Amino acid sequence: MRLPTLLLPLVALFSSSTAQAQVSPYTDTRTGISFQGISGSNGYRLGLVLPPANTTSSDVLVQLVGQGKGWAGVSLGGSMLNHLLVAAWPNGQNVMGSLRFTANYGSPPVAPATTPARSLLPILNGTYVNSTHFSYTFLCKSCLTTDGKTFAPGVTSAPIGWAQAASAPVQVTNAATALGRHNVQGLVRDVDLSVARKGEFAKWAGYASATVRVGRRWDA
């Protein structure tokens, strides 16, 4: 049976495979930041750092690593729907980052504005593109919520979702571009976030800046 043309992108979005992931801490050699990590298939990697316990900060440090020209993403609430998403992809020697939110399956639109305003502040040393992969390391400012759209500040464990696509977004220079299908995705239902809580959080968060030029080639 031939599917209507308008249905093909949506069907493609569902045709990706679910992959297993490994959860373990690691230290990024470029920045010196110690993350609680999730490693998926095809070179995907996610790192998280949170402030020390007993704090009310809504900030989180994140590292997203993906392969080739495609995009990599994370859901800070577990599944795709009704949770805050972050996607990143290479744009030449730069890396684009984008906050997304959707209640429906398909390409998620840009997340609506909030008060206080959420923002992605890149860390230069950990943000680069080379011949095999890209890395986007950033402070997700005011990103954590208590309304269920993300895991809440102060929790000790939470579900984390992840996805990776082989194909580039439609317009790589546009942070609001449509995102094509992901080839692999996964859901870790109980990530130990106590491992992600670090006394050095404030120092590492200080590496982030809205004014730095991302994308310098560190393998050159």
Describe the structure.
The structure is a single chain. Strands 2, 3, 4, 5, 9, 10 and 11 form a 7-stranded antiparallel sheet that branches. Strands 1-13-12-6-7-8 form a 6-stranded mixed sheet, with no helix packed on it. The chain is mainly beta and 220 residues long. The protein is globular. It has a single domain, classed as Sandwich (Immunoglobulin-like). It contains 2 helices and 13 strands, in the order αβββββββββββββα. Residues 1-16 and 213-220 have low confidence and may be disordered.
Structural class: mainly beta
Counted beta strands: 13
Helices and strands, in N-to-C order?
HEEEEEEEEEEEEEH
CATH class: Mainly Beta
Number of helices: 2
Helix content class: under 10%
CATH topology, which one?
Answer: Immunoglobulin-like
Rg, Cα atoms, Å: 16 Å
Largest sheet, if any? 7 strands, antiparallel
What overall form do the CA principal axes indicate?
Answer: globular
Termini Cα gap: 50 Å
Low-confidence stretches: 1-16, 213-220
Specify the CATH architecture: Sandwich
- What is the count of structural domains? 1
What is the strand content? 35-45%
Question: Please, what is the average pLDDT?
Answer: 88
| Fourth-tier CATH superfamily name | Cellobiose dehydrogenase, cytochrome domain
